[in-house]
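Re: weekly structure request thread

Next one in the queue (117 aa):
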Amino acid sequence: MTSLIDVIFLLLLFFMLSSTFSRFAEIELSSATAGGAPGETRPLFLQLRPERLTLNGEALSLDRLAPALRGQAGNIETPAPLLVSLGDGVTAQRLADLLVVLRGVPGFAPTVLGSGG
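Done, posted below.
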C-alpha cells in the first residue's frame, strides 16, 4: 500500500510539472442581444468555406478581408451586424483565424450561424 501511494504522488508531481497553465490565445464570444429597429442597418453576410471566403457574394482571401470590412464598418456605439455562415468541413482553426481578423476590425458585431448542412 505504501508503494502505491508513492507512485500516485510521483504521477501527480509529474503531471503538475509538465502542465502549462498559460493561455495561448483567447477568443471573446458574446451571447445574442436584442435587435434594434427593423431596417436600421443591413447586415453583412460572410460565408466561410474550407477553401474560400465570400463577403456579400464577393470572393476574398483572409488577407483582403480586413481592408474590405473597414470601408463598410459601423461606429463603435452601434456596431454593424455581420452574419458568418460556416460551410461543411470548416475547421476550428479556420474559424479562429477568421475571428482573429474580425477582432482587428472595430465596428462589427459578428454572429456565427453554424454549418449550412
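The longest strand covers residues 108-115. The mean pLDDT is 79.
Next request, please.
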